[in-house]
Amino acid sequence: MPTYQYRCPSCGHEFEEFQSMSEDPIELCPKCGKKTQRLISGGAGLIFKGSGFYITDYKKKESRKTDSGSGDSAPKTDAKTDKAS
Q: Against a cut of 0.70, is the pTM above it?
């Protein structure tokens, strides 16, 4: 269930409500009793925490290479193109 943000244009009171998506928006400010406005929010996005998610449990870890002079960073050349004419 999402958390909706509301603001009262009359008194400036801002509050959040944890509501079902099928519930009607709150119309009256709990502070002054006048009409409120539901604010548009970008949301928090999707967060993968804990076990049970592909991204945290099963995804292969990428090996991180460092440029420590291991010789892997040098470009490979083709023997046919290096011949002197």
A: no
